[in-house]
Amino acid sequence: GQNIDQPTEMTATEGAIVQINCTYQTSGFNGLFWYQQHAGEAPTFLSYNVLDGLEEKGRFSSFLSRSKGYSYLLLKELQMKDSASYLCAALDSNYQLIWGAGTKLIIKP
Amino acid sequence: DAMVIQNPRYQVTQFGKPVTLSCSQTLNHNVMYWYQQKSSQAPKLLFHYYDKDFNNEADTPDNFQSRRPNTSFCFLDIRSPGLGDAAMYLCATSNGGQMTDTQYFGPGTRLTVL
Q: Which of B1, B39, B56, B100 is the most exposed place for a label (fewest CB within 10 A)?
């Protein structure tokens, strides 16, 4: 079966760095998305990786290793507004988007 | 600003009473999606339209129907809502028809079934 695994919840301190991991098992692979979702709101696009390596976009970076079926989202200089759920989603060979349940990130002062 | 709009943001209906959720977009995207998301769960794709072509997910119950009268609007009809249908319903759009295209989400409609 197809599966996305990510931690249910993480806690970090304002100003610190946090890494949210995601492992995926899909039939084929056509890229991986990260979305941010604040409570009661819609997901908003953060990043898309299809090649191995790290892509940096401001305070957020996303990494992909296709051979390991692994990705992470790195958030630097954490701010209170970064408290949200972070959803990992992978595209399989049929271009179906397989979603994870999300990682709830709690930022403490 | 170009955006995806969903109305209403909160909808309350009675068990078995049909309800329609609406989505509109000013992005002129050719693909529109409907997702169901329950608390602390992954969004679940119900169906999507590529232009006027309707694509139903295999496990979407018959109780859920959709209409797309034009490029800008898409509706989700729940014919006989059950208690298990209480969820957030998310509309999303993308341009180009490739699933590698970024999906842009509306704010969602939270459905309560009494």
A: B1
**Separation of alpha carbons B100 and A9, rounded Å:** 27
| Among the partner residues A42, A48, A89, nearest to B107 by beta-carbon distance | A42
Interface test with B, best of A99, A105, A106 (most B CBs within 10 A): A99
Per residue in A23-69, pLDDT (tens digit) is 999 988 989 999 999 988 888 999 999 999 999 989 999 999 999 99
Is residue B69's pLDDT more than 80? Answer: yes
Comparing CB atoms, the residue among B42, B45, B103 nearest residue A100 is: B42
* Residue B24, min C-alpha distance to chain A (Å): 15
Q: How far is residue A13's CA from residue A67's CA, in Å, rounded to a whole number?
A: 32
The region, left, alpha or beta by phi > 0 then psi within -120 to 50, assigned to residue B11 is: beta
Compute how many other C-beta atoms are within 10 angstroms of the C-beta atom of residue B62.
8
